[in-house]
């Protein structure tokens, strides 16, 4: 069905609100109810309630718990929760709880609950029914000491509920048994059990503009000289969707609830544990409602009482000179890898390997060496000056892997001659580390397409380009350029740039399939540049710049139209276009002599929080302008740069010693940000000039994602000629097939005349060389050995050299080139016509937690049939418009408007964000309207 798309530009400035705690519903934060040391462990098991229990009737649930046969009980608790049916109303019922045949309680459940925002329960955020029953919202929680009742082997708990009125629900959510036990093994396991009834609902955000993240602390106090063996954290929750968790600031992976309304998670937290002091667990909802009931931390450790001494008479790599020896058990405790604090490792970037060593005693250790190996190849050796008994020290190494693969990292302690280390089994530790490529790094410098001279100038024009939104299979995108050349000027060469982004089939990123027509002529790209994130599970979409030679198709002034069609066979495929640019280098007898460098490419970079923790320097895009310049003869110089997805005043442009920011200001628009003809004459160098485009820090308005794609440097000279003539190089084709020998004719000119005797040299994926004849040409047999770039350079004494880049690609799936082709043309008229007024909504400055003013817009159906209009928002992930844009007082995703033929409808837009929305600053987005025949 044909659809019509229009959009509104959305802008606003957000100012922050303040949020301290959850004040709406209430609850009981988790606190310690038991701790101690055992040699067996802590047993935790649950019955997790399901939706198939009856409602408003009597029910009985039994569950059997099986402990180890050799368990000797140290402490035990049975916990159960019952759902009454309403968060505040008093629906009355009973609960009878027994364990191993012994009745623990006959509970009457008949109290209301008031949200703390409504005054609470005698001022409290919960109801304490008796000394072992409490109520928070719709749940009663009952907990009993069953230490004397638990036995080794099987134990059975039974919970019976019954209504006292017609509304009591009575479903049983949890029956949980927690047991700390000994087994005679002699192991040392410290434990702490925290219990609570802590609620986290969306009410606090929607109604108070606040957020609540629960937390509970565990006190660690491992004995001096002990060595941590294991640490395990368990959470029991009541929620149909698991929450999000951190332990000491490190994210934990959430699971899937085992029951309809509850579940548990268990994590290995050895690497994150602090052996002394507070260890903090945080928990937060992932859906509308979440409760945390239990959190249990166990830490297993060993202690060393060895007084053995050793006699190491071998070499001493530690550099010790003292004759006095100490008895110390040195060990490698952990090996962790990160990139600027993120637990990832990227190829060709500096990553940090943090190695923690421990002295298990019994004495202080003198100086020793810590070595790091990568696949058994030494990375670095560091000296540790000493380590007291019972203490640890973390040593950071810098590691820059060059390949994408799994590496084996190994840390080794070398004690040296003055340390007697009787136990060497813990002196080394290995870790398998995955290394990925981060496409957000600045790793694709813009390449030089052309470098030459001309008496004339250049035109770089984006026409009526605009961001396309998603162009699905079979749909088109068109741009027109109005070109005005000086009278008498002729075109030397012309080039078309197709800037595309977000190409995918459904949610899988793919290189686009598209056809391009320029003035009705079907063209294939002469060069294809693309880049992609290459990691993660979401938004791994490529973006690119495709360049087309249109020299013979641009003959002078006039309007030139480009139409791009998505030709992918899958109807779920889409690609977005940031715009199309037209470059013309023209000759003009009345113009100045200029020298030009034209660079093109695609380097997707980011410093946002989703970038993989890249720094601006790591995400910098390099733009080289090779060759020499006679500065004494320079009149002026100008630089053009094009950045897809710019629009951030923190982006910095460097040109040699020039450093400026605030220039990528969404001109002409943020998706195609062009800084035109910037004067750089005072910053020119005599040779090898360089530009760099640097994204902002993540702390600067959340960093930025951007794709530098074009850069043009033009230098004009005072007396009309450059001091040294520059060579121009062209090729009969810029694309060759790997493994297929192709004859390519290279043409070299200088001052628009053929140059004889110029050396043309190939490097990269193909090699070869030759010297031009009197016509300035040389034919080379190009046989590419790999897929990638081929660099062709031209040089001759008395001239400035130049180069161009060709692409070698694998053969097509058919294995052969077509024998003939025909272009296809058709003119389509819309079945649906929709216009919008105005086409921009500016919400101004909005305070978080306070709705914006209401803005009206009008949709006009210009067609002869009724249409249905729906809305879509294009915004950054979890951006302010996706989060809080209201259309006709409802969230934008529910907007639907029927408009009769040749009539209009007016709607209103408002932005309403919670006070805890995590970002402030200036934002832009797009509001799209889709229309289809009703």
UniProtKB/TrEMBL annotation:
Gene3D superfamilies: Immunoglobulins
Biased composition (Polar residues): 323-332
Domain named DUF3344: residues: 23-299, 439-715
Coiled coil feature spans: none
Any Pfam family: CARDB
Region annotated Disordered, chain positions: 303-332
Domain CARDB residue range list: 329-431
Name of the molecule in the record: Cell surface protein
Source organism (scientific name): Methanosarcina siciliae C2J
């Amino acid at each position: 069905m044909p659809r019509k798309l229009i959009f509104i530009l959305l802008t606003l400035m957000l100012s922050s609100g303040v949020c301290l705690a959850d004040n709406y519903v209430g609850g009981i934060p988790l606190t310690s109810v038991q701790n101690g040391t055992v040699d067996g462990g802590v047993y935790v098991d649950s019955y997790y309630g399901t939706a198939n229990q009856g409602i408003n009737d009597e029910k009985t649930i039994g569950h059997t718990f099986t402990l180890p046969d050799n368990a000797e009980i140290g402490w035990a608790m049975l916990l159960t929760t019952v759902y009454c049916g309403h968060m505040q109303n008093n629906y009355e019922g009973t609960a009878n709880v027994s364990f191993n045949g012994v009745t623990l309680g006959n509970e009457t459940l008949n109290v209301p609950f008031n949200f703390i925002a409504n005054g609470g329960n005698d001022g409290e955020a919960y109801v304490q029914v008796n000394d072992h029953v409490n109520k928070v919202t719709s749940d009663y929680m009952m907990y009993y000491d069953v230490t004397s009742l638990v036995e080794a082997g099987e134990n059975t708990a039974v919970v019976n509920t019954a209504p006292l009125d017609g509304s009591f629900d009575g479903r049983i959510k949890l029956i949980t048994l927690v047991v700390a036990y000994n087994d005679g093994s002699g192991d040392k396991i410290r434990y702490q059990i925290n219990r609570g009834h802590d609620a986290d609902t969306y009410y606090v955000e929607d109604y108070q503009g606040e957020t609540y993240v629960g937390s509970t602390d565990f006190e660690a106090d491992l004995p001096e000289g002990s060595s941590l063996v294991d640490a395990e954290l368990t959470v029991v929750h009541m929620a149909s969707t698991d929450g999000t968790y951190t332990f000491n600031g490190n994210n934990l992976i959430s699971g899937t609830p085992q029951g309809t309304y509850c579940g548990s998670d268990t994590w290995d937290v050895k690497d994150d544990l602090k052996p002394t002091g507070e260890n903090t667990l945080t928990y937060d909802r992932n859906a509308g409602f979440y409760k945390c009931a239990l959190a249990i931390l166990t830490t297993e450790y060993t202690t060393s009482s060895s007084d053995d001494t050793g006699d190491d008479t071998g070499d001493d790599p530690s550099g010790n000179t003292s004759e006095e020896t100490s008895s110390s058990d040195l060990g490698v405790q952990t090996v962790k890898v990160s990139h600027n604090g993120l637990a990832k490792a990227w190829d060709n970037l500096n990553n940090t390997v943090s190695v923690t060593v421990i002295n298990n005693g019994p004495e202080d250790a003198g100086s020793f060496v810590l070595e790091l190996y990568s696949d058994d190849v030494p990375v670095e050796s560091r000296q540790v000056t000493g380590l007291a008994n019972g203490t640890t020290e973390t040593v950071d190494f810098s590691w820059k892997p060059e390949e994408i693969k799994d590496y084996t990292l190994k840390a080794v302690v070398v004690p040296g001659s003055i340390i007697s280390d009787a136990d060497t089994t813990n002196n080394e530790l290995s870790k398998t580390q995955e290394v990925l490529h981060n496409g957000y790094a600045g790793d694709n410098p813009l390449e030089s397409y052309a470098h030459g001279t001309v008496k004339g100038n250049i035109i770089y024009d984006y026409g009526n380009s605009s961001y396309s939104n998603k162009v699905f299979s079979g749909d088109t995108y068109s741009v027109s350029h109005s070109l005005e050349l000086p009278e008498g000027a002729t075109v030397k060469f012309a080039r078309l740039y197709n800037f595309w982004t977000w190409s995918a089939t459904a949610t899988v990123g793919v290189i686009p399939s598209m056809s391009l027509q320029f003035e009705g002529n079907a063209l294939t790209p002469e060069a294809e540049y693309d880049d992609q994130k290459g990691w993660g599970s979401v938004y791994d979409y490529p973006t690119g710049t495709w360049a087309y030679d249109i020299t013979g198709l641009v003959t002078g002034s006039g309007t030139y139209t480009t139409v791009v069609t998505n030709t992918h066979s899958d109807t779920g495929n889409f690609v977005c276009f940031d715009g199309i640019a037209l470059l013309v280098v023209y000759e003009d007898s009345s113009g100045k002599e200029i020298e030009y460098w034209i660079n093109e490419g695609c380097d997707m970079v980011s410093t946002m929080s989703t970038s993989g923790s890249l720094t601006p320097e790591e995400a910098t895009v390099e733009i080289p302008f090779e060759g020499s310049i006679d500065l004494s003869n320079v009149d002026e110089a100008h630089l053009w740069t094009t950045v897809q997805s710019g629009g951030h005043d923190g982006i910095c442009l460097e040109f040699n010693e020039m450093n400026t920011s605030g220039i990528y200001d969404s001109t002409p628009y943020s998706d195609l940000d062009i800084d035109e003809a910037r004067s750089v004459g005072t910053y020119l160098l005599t040779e090898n000039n360089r530009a760099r485009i640097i994204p902002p820090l993540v702390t600067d308005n959340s960093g930025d994602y951007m794709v530098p794609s074009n850069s043009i440097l033009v230098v004009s000279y005072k007396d009309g000629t450059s001091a040294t003539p520059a060579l121009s190089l062209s090729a009969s084709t810029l694309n060759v097939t790997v493994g297929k020998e192709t004859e390519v004719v290279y043409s070299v000119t200088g001052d628009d005349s053929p140059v004889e005797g110029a050396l043309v040299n190939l490097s990269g994926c193909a090699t070869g060389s030759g010297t031009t004849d009197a016509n300035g040409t040389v034919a080379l047999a190009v046989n590419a050995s790999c897929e990638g770039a081929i660099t062709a350079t031209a040089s001759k004494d008395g001239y400035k050299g130049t180069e161009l880049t060709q692409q070698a690609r694998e053969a097509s799936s058919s294995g052969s080139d077509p024998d003939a082709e025909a272009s296809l043309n058709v003119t389509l008229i819309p079945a649906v016509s929709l216009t919008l007024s105005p086409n921009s909504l500016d919400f101004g400055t909005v305070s978080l937690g306070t709705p914006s003013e209401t803005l009206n817009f009008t949709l006009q159906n210009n067609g002869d049939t009724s249409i249905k209009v729906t809305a879509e928002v294009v915004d950054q992930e979890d951006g302010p418009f996706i989060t809080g844009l209201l259309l006709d007082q409802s969230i934008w995703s529910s907007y639907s408007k029927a408009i009769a033929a040749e009539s209009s409808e007016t709607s209103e837009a408002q932005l309403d964000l919670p006070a805890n929305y995590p970002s402030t600053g200036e934002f832009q987005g797009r509001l799209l309207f889709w229309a289809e025949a009703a």
